Amino acid sequence: MNDPLAPSERYLQGMATRRAVLGDSHVDRTQSGLTDFDRPFQELITEAAWGHVWSRPTLSKRERSIVTIALLAALGQDDEVAMHVRATSNTGATREDVCDALLHVAIYAGVPAANHAIKIAKQVFEQMDAEETA
């Protein structure tokens, strides 16, 4: 008999994709801080964003990464921009890809949005470089 409290297949796929993109340490930090208040939201994004959208075979993780960074930058979602720039180390998106995505943001969403996202990306890449040499 199926356990109604067991995670769905979509959730399990989403968690695997989420870990592949964001890394185990990020996901483990998020999971360890879950409360009854935010657990439903985390389950929703794991199934919907990671299980439905990010797990589709049409676009590669690199392509999804580029699109996601551009969209988040255009929307001014600074924390999410930083998180997804950091995730490029797992998705295969290059710094040149991020630069080109943010050039598109400048044209289609505005120079201020791109300018701010470029500042964030530079900071994240500097942190990643420092971690690599440490």
Descriptive report:
With 134 residues, the protein is mainly alpha-helical. The protein has two domains: 1-58, no CATH class; 60-134, AhpD-like. 77% of the residues lie in helices and 0% in strands. It has eight helices and no strands. It has helices at 9-22, 24-32, 39-53, 61-75, 78-86, 88-91, 95-108, 111-133. The longest helix is centred in the last third of the chain and has 23 residues, at 111-133. The chain is globular. It starts with 8 loop residues before the first helix and ends with a helix.
Which helices and strands occur, and which strands form pairs?
Blueprint: H1 9-22, H2 24-32, H3 39-53, H4 61-75, H5 78-86, H6 88-91, H7 95-108, H8 111-133
Can you tag this structure with a few keywords?
134 residues; mainly alpha; AhpD-like; 0% strand
Helix content: over 70%
CATH architecture group name of the largest domain? Up-down Bundle
Q: Tell me the Rg in angstroms.
A: 16 Å
CATH class membership of the largest domain:
Mainly Alpha
CATH superfamily of the largest domain: AhpD-like
Tell me the β content. Answer: under 5%
Query: Which geometry do the CA atoms define?
Result: globular
Overall structural class, as computed from helix and strand content, comes to: mainly alpha
First-residue to last-residue Cα separation: 51 Å
Number of helices: 8
Any idea how many domains? Answer: 2
The largest β sheet comes out as: none
CATH topology-level fold name of the largest domain: AhpD-like
Pattern of helices and strands: HHHHHHHH
Report the uncertain regions: none
- What's the mean pLDDT score? 96
Tell me how many strands there are: 0
EC number: 4.1.1.44
Protein name: 4-carboxymuconolactone decarboxylase
InterPro entries: 4CMD/NDH-1_regulator (IPR052512), AhpD-like (IPR029032), CMD-like (IPR003779), Decarb_PcaC (IPR012788)
Pfam families: CMD (PF02627)
